[in-house]
Fold this protein.
Amino acid sequence: MANSMLLALLVEDNAIARVVVSKLMVEQGMALEEAENGKAAVESVKGGKSYDLILMDREMPVMDGHEATKQLRLLGVKAPIVALSADTQQCHKDLFLQAGADEFIEKPLTKDKLAQILTKYGLRRGP
Amino acid sequence: MEYSSLHRQLATMKKSFFDQGFLDEQFFQIEELQDDVSPNFVEEVVTLFFKDSLRLMGNIDHALEKFPQDFDRLDSLIHQLKGSASSIGAAKMKNECTVFRDFCDKENQEGCIRSFQKVKKEHACLRQKLENYFQLLRQVGPVAKATRSGN
């Protein structure tokens, strides 16, 4: 159990962003799965997948981050959900938090921001 | 001797990208991800960006020709382009994409067309600069981890 890799889900429609965040996560010792939109993320969980952390983009086709967060919480997902968006308007933050996200981070995700998230939720790998 | 001169050229070139606002802090983040496992990570991501952005800009060009204009589709495309630009630290491009999106929100077709010309201009400019940069980088060979001072 102690040696099993923690698994995160990155829900992000932008391919370039996925490449960069994926590398960031690997560097932090996290295994990562990707979903291109909210619906794919929800389907993944419905299919039995379980994650230690979910990074959720806001604007996505098919199903956006707000709706996906809501549905994931309704499905009983307890993992921290961190909303990511370049748009930091308070209304969007509020919507995400109301939907069940644990916090809202401004994009792009940086090494420091990710380290803070992992530390906050007890997901940092040991020395 | 020539090697250190190339290094200096590289550092000066990179510093100018930041000083002139073409790139922002995010580019440093990408550089910091380059390591022994992914020794060409920066160039790979940048290459992927230019390939993807050319495709998106082609779609935007095509979408702008339509009448009546589908502003939702345009907005979706420019959102993608902005996201990609932001991911590699392409600051000027990202800002022009924001202007374009504002015109989309207002359903201002002429404004969209004008601002998209600026997006394309910034794209072409950045592409040229980074192509020159990577060409020089290849001459220098593997470099030490990036530093913010540009040294």
